[in-house]
Amino acid sequence: MRLIFLGSDPIALPVLDWLAGEGKGIAQVVGVFTGPDRPAGRGQQSRVNAIKGWAQTQGLPVYQPEKLTEADRDQVVALAADLCLVFAYGQILREAFIAAPRRATLNLHASLLPHYRGASPIQSAVAAGERRTGVSLMKIVRELDAGPVADQVEVPIGPLDTAREVEAAVAAACPALLARTLPRLARGELVFVEQVHAEASFCRRLRKEDGRLDWYAPAAALAALINGLFPWPACAIEVGGQRIKLGLAEAAEGEGPNSGEVVGQDDGGLLVQAGRGRVRLRRLQREGGRMLPAGDFLRGFPIPLGTRLASTAMAPLVGPRPLR
Hints:
324 residues, 18 strands, alpha/beta
């Protein structure tokens, strides 16, 4: 099958490497759509994203429209595409574009649908304290991540996994999913099953301010949020006027009267009183520094017992309807 890939995030690189290697006899990538080059870094110089870089090494044509147009749909037709495969692209596809390839336009969505439809499924699943997530291969429809599903792969979430580790595991699970589904698609045997829409949950695009913490919340909820939002936007605390990024946390037992108070330190990390239980902060990072285990961090930046951390109301990341 002649395949056009649409994606803008490095999570798709294992899929692309598989397509260029073991999957080459099933599907041939003939073109790549990805996001426009964006300024990045302190110098704000234009930077090629990982997907464009991969395509260039393969000698493939790359298309980077700010928004997909009728001309882009015509390009899919001109390339005689059998299949469009979308993974973390970041644009809404119009009906004419969805219908352009000869067989289908499919999407790899990083959750076990119908749960966690939307823009941040991995981060939101970890932040919600889930112990499993996965990836679903689905048909694209105009409604948000609501298309029928052909197959799924489950990925476990460990108690000390952050979104970074879970994203890597989800990315690594995708090639096996395609290896067992694309041959069936080519033979016309792939079956798609309607989602149970009544069970759907929705997550939204993350914002920098989502990293604020309400220390009156339960410790388990705070630890899950810290892990789910690492590495971006990352939760943070402020001590002595300095912002300290949090890279890993877990819930611990212990009660005290003052939520947000630093109440101790043990071999695992810095202990902060929550509304129920305590949060053990295991990794911390100063502005301009490296992310360090708590013990190493606190030797260079002591945080005295009794320090009170500010609390801020936390906006929900997940709901029964689409969120903004």
